Amino acid sequence: MTDAVEDIRQLKRDYQENFGTPQGVRILEDLRGYCGYDKSSFHLGAPDSTAHSEGMRRVILYIHAKIKRDDESLLKQIELQEDN
User: What is the distance between the alpha carbons of residues 23 and 67, in angstroms, rounded to a whole number?
Assistant: First the structure.
C-alpha cells in the first residue's frame, strides 16, 4: 500500500472519528444550519450572495462526503492521485 493510500484512509478515519463523537455530532448539526445544508443557496438578483452562500454550503457537503464516503469512491480518489 502506498503512502498516499494510507493518508487518504487515515483522513477518512479522522473525519469519522471526530464527527462521530457526541461533540462532533453537535458541531456538525450547528454547521449544517449555519452553512445552509438543507436550503437553497440561490438569491434572486444577487449573484454575489448566491456565490457566498453556495461556498458556505459546499463546506458542509464536503464534510458529509468525507464522513460517508464508501470504499469505491475512496479507491477512485486513490487512483486519481496515483495517476498524477
Answer: 15
Q: What's the structural domain count of the chain?
A: 1
pLDDT per residue over 11-47, tens digit each?
989 999 999 999 999 999 999 999 999 999 999 999 9
Residue 28 and residue 9: Cα distance in Å, rounded?
Answer: 21
What is the rounded distance in angstroms from the CA atom of residue 25 to the CA atom of residue 39? 19
* The residue to which cell 440561490 is assigned: 42
- Hey, how many other C-beta atoms are within 10 angstroms of the C-beta on 67? 16
Cα–Cα distance between 77 and 37 in angstroms, integer? 24
